């Protein structure tokens, strides 16, 4: 485990500010309500995702695909422009490490991370780390289980006798978070995070990243003889959480946290000079005074693709009807001809109301490839509509009947387009195409 030396400075203060905003977001987002409903929740047992008052189901998997593609392209786009800034500034791994470090430094002071720190002090640090791990694990679990229900369950007398499933997950994530923060930390970023492997391909000489101004810095001071500006104080090295030497060039282990920038700003400040390490592109390090090229083929391609995905997702969301309908021919009762030349087809339907309001849904034949008119019966009766409660589903049966004209009999299968409309809101409408079979005589 590397516990890097603490350093103060402008970047450290700015990161504290960002973390002060992010931590409440991580912890309290699942507690927020949109009206009476969850602001955000992935309800895995019921296969529903709640977001901003909307309910999404696995049948709408294309939103997930667009989300993942969008996330991937954002990763490409922002890494091309500003390097691995997500890792150093916003990733929960980094934010939580800072929280754990703050606890360690508050309790142990300058002895934090040293072997000769007092044993009771170390024990207290680990105790507080476990407490924070429990809180972190609960925060994570509450993205999947209702935190208000979790509180009620804890209060109930049956809690200890039969703990709910979320308690096992909380225990697992507590152990994971504690072990990660106490023993792995930024070594995860260096060796395990897949994003670190990507970054070298996504970045180029014009990407803004933490970079060492080797032109000014080298050759660094040796045995008191100074040629370049680097004093070889090695402060940038000892503050680095991943234990790398940024003076050796862009490194896969650099998470762009900027600690070395603050370190060098301090050292160079004593010499009355500008920092040798800063957020700049390699081109700027080679040719001081050049401006960052934000617009270049790579950023244009990623930016355009990201914009296309955003437009596609926006259009789909704008036109989305929060209703899922599935209508399948009955497997048991086959299409049949009844006396009088009438042909009947039987179907089983399933309606899923993805809103929180009750809906009265009218099912009617909108179009058909049959020449003869098609009559519809819901559940075998002339029922006008199906009632579906908010955030609920309803199974139903449909019978379609027609008296086929001679030209209809020439084709064994026809297409029927069903229109499902909310009686109170005609814009809440969905179409579904189903087959209609004429039995062979
Ligand atoms: S090299 Fe600097 S920016 Fe990169 S991880 Fe180390 S301290 Fe952070
Ligand atoms: S902190 Fe600056 S001066 Fe000190 S070793 Fe690093 S680059 Fe050189």
TrEMBL record:
Query: Does the record's keyword annotation contain Transmembrane helix?
Result: yes
- A Pfam match is FixG_C
Q: What superkingdom does the record give?
A: Bacteria
The source organism is Leptospira adleri
Q: Which GO terms describe its molecular function?
A: 4 iron, 4 sulfur cluster binding; metal ion binding
Q: Which residues form the 4Fe-4S ferredoxin-type domain?
A: 221-249
The record's keywords, sorted A to Z, are: 4Fe-4S, Electron transport, Iron, Iron-sulfur, Membrane, Metal-binding, Transmembrane, Transmembrane helix, Transport
Please identify the protein, giving its name as recorded: Cytochrome c oxidase accessory protein CcoG
Please name the gene that encodes this protein. Answer: ccoG
Q: Where is coiled-coil annotated?
A: none
């Amino acid at each position: 485990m590397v516990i890097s030396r603490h350093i103060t400075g402008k970047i450290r203060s700015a990161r504290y500010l960002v973390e002060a905003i992010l931590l409440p977001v991580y912890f309290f987002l699942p507690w927020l309500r949109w009206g009476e409903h969850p602001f955000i929740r992935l309800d895995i047992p019921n296969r529903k995702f709640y977001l901003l008052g909307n309910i999404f189901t696995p049948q709408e998997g294309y939103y997930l695909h667009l989300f993942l593609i969008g996330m991937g392209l954002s990763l490409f786009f922002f890494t091309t422009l500003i390097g691995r800034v997500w890792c150093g500034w916003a990733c929960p791994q980094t934010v939580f490490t800072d929280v754990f470090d703050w606890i360690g430094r508050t309790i142990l002071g300058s002895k934090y991370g040293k072997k000769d720190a007092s044993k009771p002090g170390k024990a207290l640090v680990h105790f507080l780390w476990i407490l924070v791990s429990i809180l972190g694990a609960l925060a994570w679990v509450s993205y999947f289980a209702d935190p208000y229900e979790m509180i009620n369950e804890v209060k109930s007398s049956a809690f200890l006798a039969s703990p709910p499933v979320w308690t096992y997950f909380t225990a697992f994530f507590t152990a994971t978070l504690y072990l990660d923060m106490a023993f792995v930390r930024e070594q995860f970023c260096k060796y395990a995070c897949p994003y670190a492997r990507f970054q070298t391909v996504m970045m180029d000489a014009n990407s803004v990243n933490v970079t060492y101004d080797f032109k000014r810095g080298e050759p660094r001071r040796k045995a008191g003889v100074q040629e370049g500006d680097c004093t070889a104080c090695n402060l940038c090295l000892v503050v680095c959480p991943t234990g790398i030497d940024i003076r050796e060039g862009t490194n896969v282990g650099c998470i762009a946290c900027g600690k070395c920038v603050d370190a060098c700003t301090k050292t160079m400040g004593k010499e009355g000079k500008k920092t040798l390490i800063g957020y700049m592109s390699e081109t700027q390090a080679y040719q001081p005074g050049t401006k960052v090229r934000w617009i270049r083929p790579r950023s244009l391609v990623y930016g355009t693709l990201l914009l296309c995905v955003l437009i596609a997702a926006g259009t789909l969301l704008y036109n989305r009807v929060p209703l899922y309908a599935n209508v399948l021919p009955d497997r048991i009762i086959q299409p049949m001809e009844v006396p009088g030349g009438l042909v009947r087809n039987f179907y089983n339907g399933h309606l899923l109301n993805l809103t929180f309001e009750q809906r009265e849904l009218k099912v009617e034949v909108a179009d058909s490839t049959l020449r003869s008119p098609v009559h519809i019966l819901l559940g075998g009766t002339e029922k006008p509509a199906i009632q579906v409660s908010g955030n609920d589903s309803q199974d139903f049966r449909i019978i379609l009947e027609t008296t086929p004209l001679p030209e209809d009999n020439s084709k064994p299968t026809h297409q029927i387009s069903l229109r499902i409309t909310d009686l109170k809101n005609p814009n809440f409408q969905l179409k579904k195409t189903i087959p209609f079979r004429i039995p062979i005589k």
